[in-house]
Amino acid sequence: MKKTRDKGGYGKPPEKNRFQKGKSGNPKGRPKRTQENKSLQQMLRDLALREFVGQFNGKQTKVTFIEAVFLKQFSEAMKGNTAAAKFLVSLFEKHVPLNRSLAELMKDTPVFALTAKDKALFKKSELLRGVTFEEDSQDQQ
User: Fold this and answer.
1) Are residues 81 and 95 in contact, defined by beta-carbon separation less than 8 angstroms?
2) Whole-model pTM above 0.85?
3) Which of 6, 13, 88, 135 fits 17 for a cystine, CB–CB 3.0-4.6 Å?
């Protein structure tokens, strides 16, 4: 009995029905996500990374929403808000590697490069009352 090439069988469809070489089985591809079917994770990421112009330290600065949240948390922690401080410490514990030194993490950036406004803010803070900065002690001499 002679088999013809066109005949198929179990697991072997006829040649005319098989995938053609160089032709996609899904020419339009998978549909892209639209605004309506966006995942919650994607919506949060898009919102957190959206930029806006806010006023920080008396000047207008372009920041993302997530940066603004962190700036507010740092500000509240410096004012003595223990909940904000605990939140920041928990973030550092989860996301900052403990096996690296602060100098390695800062990558040759001065650890405490404070502006005059920052120093004034720290001096007003109850947390650092009585702490002197290196430049201040040199200025007095």
Assistant:
1) no
2) no
3) 13
- Best CA proximity match to 84, nearest among 21, 63, 92: 92
Give the start-to-end residue ranges of the domains of the chain.
40-131
Q: Which residues contact 111 (CB under 8 A, 6 or more apart)?
A: 102, 103
Would you write out the chain's pLDDT as a tens digit for each of its 141 residues? Answer: 555 556 778 888 888 888 788 887 788 888 877 777 788 888 888 888 899 888 877 888 888 998 888 888 998 999 999 999 999 888 888 877 777 776 676 676 665 566 777 767 666 665 555 556 555 444 455
Length of the chain, please? 141
Helices 40-48 & 65-78, crossing angle to 10 degrees?
70
